[in-house]
Amino acid sequence: MVLGIESPAVWLAYVLSLASAVVCVVYGIVYWNQGEEPVKKEDVDWAKEEKQEVEDAL
Predict the structure, then answer these.
(1) Is residue 2, in this structure, part of any structural domain at all?
(2) With contact defined as beta carbons under 8 Å apart, do 1 and 7 qualify?
(3) What digits encode the pLDDT tens for the residues 2-42?
(4) What are the Cα distances from residue 22, in Å, to 7, 9, 15, 25, 51?
């Protein structure tokens, strides 16, 4: 019995949830200021086409 929890499955669930929280925090710290990926020309062209289609529909 660890911390009053008799079932190993429940104990494992608690440990894994805490471990995943720690992993998420570490990931956030490591990748905090990575910066954005550059905008591709094809993405800009697609956005212009979509905007034009919306304006034409209105």
Answers:
(1) no
(2) no
(3) 678 888 899 999 999 999 999 999 999 998 888 788 889 99
(4) 23, 20, 11, 5, 42
Quick one: DSSP state of residue 58? -
**DSSP class of 52:** H
Would you report the helix, strand and coil content of the chain in percent, each value rounded to 5? 70, 5, 30
pTM of the model: 0.54
Number of separate domains in the chain: 1
Residues of the domain holding 52 = 8-57
pLDDT in tens, 31-53: 888 878 888 999 999 999 999 99
Distance, CA of 44 to CA of 55 (rounded, Å) = 17
